[in-house]
């Protein structure tokens, strides 16, 4: 009786399931018939955009705009983009970056980094045998009208890492990066699970230095051993090296459940995030321990000059943060819900050098700590940083060339 009932249930399920599609090949992108076209709206407003993706057949798809950093994401089921280069897409150079690749099993993802806040004005798919065309139109919006996906990382989860990352394109000649492993010496930083923040970030910085030097990048370090380095000395090291980028590395601690995942911070003295304030107290206590307090020492003229200098360096710092976060997201690195944040960390205070502070993860979070001590995870993160740094540097050189022209 039970066997007969089981057979009846199986038959019902089989009848309810849609028939399989046999022999259906993956849809291929016709890159020559695809494009990203911008239409100017005047000098006071960002241009309108239209993304056109021409495929060999119709596919299920979705399009969404996310923030931190600003991106248009188009997912397509049953589409194969392998062997195609984003730089061959017409109009790819009109936005900060275009990337694509496998999403999860059976899906591909296209990511367009946006130059400002946008909203999807329309999206649709037209079919004309044998091809299909997906069109997504974007219109610029004001900051207060920008409504991206509530959690930027929600659209980026379940993205499997590739077997190996492609080699980074050569960086511009003469690029210098200064790495700043946080804490050290009598200040071990955060501690959990038998690990100290100072040791973890120093080991990671040395691995990153080797990978960057292999690309021909000149690398300086604020410390190469377990010793204390004051905040002023860290910034002086970067300035003496004539650094193009200053990157401070941390793996901090916050109360349980308050934070997990990688986060990139850039200078913002007006940031009022509670977690950022707690971390600023932890980072900046170093100079207080040495009897140096950097707060409130700038006279009015110096403050004005520093703010003027930051009109150039601050956008470049924020641009690097976007490059880094987008690459971490594409490689399924666990990110904080707000992966790019501002904070008044004194180590980011230098007005003449693009600077960022990367929390690789929080050593007090068990999952983050497992990643931080996993050689394979660190290797993947190193490759991501190399790609982000070289990509950012090429983008900066191109921008500077356009300004000179």
Automatic annotation (TrEMBL):
Pfam families linked to this entry: Amidase_3, AMIN
UniProt KW Ubl conjugation keyword: no
Sample GO molecular function, one term: N-acetylmuramoyl-L-alanine amidase activity
Signal sequence bounds: 1-23
GO biological processes: peptidoglycan catabolic process
Keywords, alphabetical: Hydrolase, Signal
Protein name, UniProt field: N-acetylmuramoyl-L-alanine amidase
Source organism, top-level taxon: Bacteria
Membrane-spanning residues: none
EC number from the UniProt entry: 3.5.1.28
Lineage: Bacteria, Pseudomonadati, Pseudomonadota, Alphaproteobacteria, Rhodobacterales
Keyword Signal: yes
Family matches, as Gene3D superfamilies: 2.60.40.3500, Zn-dependent exopeptidases
InterPro entries assigned to the protein according to its UniProt record, in alphabetical order: AMIN_dom, MurNAc-LAA_cat, N-acetylmuramoyl_amidase_3
């Amino acid at each position: 009786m039970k066997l007969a009932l089981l057979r009846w249930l199986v038959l019902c399920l089989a009848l309810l399931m849609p028939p399989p599609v046999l022999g259906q090949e993956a849809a291929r992108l016709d890159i020559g018939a695809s494009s990203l076209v911008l239409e100017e709206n005047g000098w006071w407003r960002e241009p309108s955009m239209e993304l056109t993706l021409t495929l060999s057949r119709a596919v299920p798809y979705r399009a969404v705009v996310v923030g931190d950093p600003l991106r248009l994401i188009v997912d397509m089921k049953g589409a194969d983009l392998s062997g195609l280069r984003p730089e061959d897409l017409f109009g790819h150079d009109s936005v900060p970056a275009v990337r694509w690749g496998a999403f999860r099993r059976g899906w591909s993802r296209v990511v367009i980094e946006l130059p400002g806040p946008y909203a999807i004005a329309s999206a649709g798919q037209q079919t004309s045998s044998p091809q299909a065309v997906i069109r997504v139109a974007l219109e610029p919006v004001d900051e207060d009208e920008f409504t991206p996906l509530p959690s930027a990382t929600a659209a980026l989860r379940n993205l499997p890492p590739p077997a190996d990352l492609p080699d980074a394109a050569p960086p511009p000649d003469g690029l210098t990066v200064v790495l700043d492993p946080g804490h050290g010496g009598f200040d071990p930083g955060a501690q959990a699970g038998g690990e100290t923040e100072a040791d973890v970030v120093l080991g990671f910085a040395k691995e990153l230095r080797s990978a960057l030097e292999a690309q021909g990048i000149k690398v300086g370090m604020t410390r190469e051993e377990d010793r204390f380095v004051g905040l002023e000395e860290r910034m002086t090291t970067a300035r003496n090296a004539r650094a193009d980028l200053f990157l401070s590395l941390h793996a901090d601690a916050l109360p349980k459940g308050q934070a997990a995942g990688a986060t990139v911070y850039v200078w913002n003295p007006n940031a009022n995030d509670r977690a950022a304030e707690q971390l600023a107290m932890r980072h900046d206590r170093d100079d207080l321990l040495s009897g140096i307090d950097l707060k409130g020492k700038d006279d009015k003229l110096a403050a004005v000059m520093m703010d003027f200098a930051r009109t150039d360096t601050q956008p470049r710092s924020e641009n690097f943060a976007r490059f880094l976060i987008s690459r971490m997201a594409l490689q399924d690195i666990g990110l904080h819900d707000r992966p790019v944040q501002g904070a008044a960390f004194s180590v980011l205070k230098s007005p003449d050098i693009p600077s960022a502070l990367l929390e690789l993860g929080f050593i007090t979070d068990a999952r983050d700590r497992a990643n931080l001590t996993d050689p394979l995870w660190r290797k993947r993160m190193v490759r991501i940083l190399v790609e982000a740094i070289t990509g950012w540097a090429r983008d900066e050189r191109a921008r500077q060339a356009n300004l000179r022209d």
